[in-house]
């Protein structure tokens, strides 16, 4: 028996022993979404039925995880999500990495697909712009790790699905929220939202407008944005409904850029400085090779509009779901001199279909789902000389055209009571085309592959589940990865394949403990690794396929209600929330990446802990403290010669309900003013005096806010 199989069997055996405590396990409490206020919804409170549909590491993060804090970017929604690493590479530029995949992608991300209400926010070329996402209009975040759900993904890392607030889940009427604050050295920021929701017997609606102004702690670091999200749903019958969604985003962001390790320690507040040469002899001239972030006005400005629809109805004994989306996007981004000033504009549209039916099979329930989706889009990309933040002479002009076709089938069978077996497969074909508009030269890349999974889950009791699964994931390179070497031509990159085993247990004990623990072991062929450009002084995405890598780890969330009985009698609660991630990600055979066999993949700490202790009284006020820390081997390079500094970061949050209509709250970040690294773009070989791959975290800051419900 292999080590993988032994680990899975051992985990399953442990769960069987835990089952003897079934008499002490109770059903989850019901949560009233309209009146929960400051109440924290923890693992103990969440219904296991929401995640029983697949034998995989899936969980749903409620908006209570972040809405009582100053949450102004996508990364704030994953503090309590084990296995999710937030790699903040600039202000409002969090890169999500799940299970260590794509941690070093310095521009956008692959292997993690982002959806909103089932329709993709990650575009057809593989790019995700996190500044288009407004957390304040999001009700829940569904996190799907690995190949736990083929309908929504199949990527190596996983899928994040943002579920919007609707007239069914939001408090009816008009509400307003405003918050603001400053870092310790007076860099102010804030955001405000006005939202309106309503419902009646046949219709519900929600609309929210959010404005953000963020003056980052570093120089040349500022963001202003305006975002609108609205949706309206119509009930068409007992089992039929349709919902329309609309999003508009307008974001202007000044970027500070990366720093060297020396600058990180001595000049962390500065933006990327100019690159100079000399003097070559005493008294000689200093030659300015490249301007820095301030002179080149590093920035990324985005205009995005999106409409989508989801319609559900019964037809010929099946539950049918159809949907579609259309997105238009424009991006202006001055970069460092030799990259230039980038202008991009493009659009895409897509459609999806799913059929589902439950039938009897040998006297037991069986459910199957099948369907697929089609997405196509193109974008024009122009690069100019960067003349102090303004476009100069044209350097290149290209068109990117991509198409994705997916088809899937899944089945769940319950041969015994509380035992379910699920299997599925997904076929994907991807076309990526590049046209050099200067000479109409066309390059084509076609990729075809299959993802598949099989799992078994056992519901030991109403509050205890165990599962094991095996899966294969397949994913092609994105357009940005293919053009990382030269914007006018594709580099040679192969698609990525993985095979993984995982097992987990999730449940509750009494009214005081909720837990969710997963072990995974994934072998990858041709993982796309960002090695950086060893001849460059700045972060440059240069990608290679590593022949073989392995990603192993543990993802654990444990929520403990301390002194539950005695405090509950007084209308109070003391909750300790714990999130722990163990990551053992290594090169097995480096291949084109280099001589890194056995090394750890850079950019991911071995240990990551995030925790919060929170005291609530009568759902009227609360006080909480939180901490985030990394430990173990944490390298900035794949050769494992340079370690990333690790220091604990401590914060707090507090809130008070003045009346049924008015709530005030406050939050603080990095209270001890710790100098820490918020993000790193790992490279193959690190020159600590030259490679600018580190992003410092913000200094100590405090924010306060007010919510008013009319």
Explained architecture:
- This protein is mostly beta strands and 710 residues long.
- It has five helices and 33 strands.
- The protein has helices at 3-18, 261-266, 293-296, 479-482, 564-568, and strands at residues 58-62, 84-88, 94-98, 112-116, 119-120, 138-145, 158-164, 173-183, 188-199, 203-215, 222-235, 241-254, 275-277, 287-290, 299-315, 318-334, 341-361, 364-387, 390-416, 419-436, 441-461, 464-475, 496-509, 513-530, 543-562, 572-589, 607-617, 621-631, 649-657, 662-669, 677-680, 694-696, 701-709.
- It has a 22-stranded antiparallel beta barrel. A five-stranded mixed beta sheet has the order 1-6-7-4-5, with no helix packed on it.
- A hairpin with a 2-residue loop joins strand 4 (112-116) and strand 5 (119-120).
- The longest helix has 16 residues, at 3-18.
- The radius of gyration is 25 Å and the shape is globular.
- It starts with a helix and ends with a strand.
Which features characterize this protein?
710 residues, mainly beta, Maltoporin, Chain A, 22-stranded antiparallel beta barrel, five-stranded mixed beta sheet, 5 helices, 33 strands, 5% helix, 55% strand, globular, disordered N terminus
Summary of the model, kept short:
The protein has 710 residues and is mostly beta strands. It has five helices and 33 strands.
Topology:
Elements: H1 3-18, E1 58-62, E2 84-88, E3 94-98, E4 112-116, E5 119-120, E6 138-145, E7 158-164, E8 173-183, E9 188-199, E10 203-215, E11 222-235, E12 241-254, H2 261-266, E13 275-277, E14 287-290, H3 293-296, E15 299-315, E16 318-334, E17 341-361, E18 364-387, E19 390-416, E20 419-436, E21 441-461, E22 464-475, H4 479-482, E23 496-509, E24 513-530, E25 543-562, H5 564-568, E26 572-589, E27 607-617, E28 621-631, E29 649-657, E30 662-669, E31 677-680, E32 694-696, E33 701-709
Parallel strand pairs: 4-7
Antiparallel strand pairs: 1-6, 2-3, 4-5, 6-7, 8-9, 8-33, 9-10, 10-11, 11-12, 12-15, 13-14, 15-16, 16-17, 17-18, 18-19, 19-20, 20-21, 21-22, 22-23, 23-24, 24-25, 25-26, 26-27, 27-28, 28-29, 29-30, 30-33, 31-32
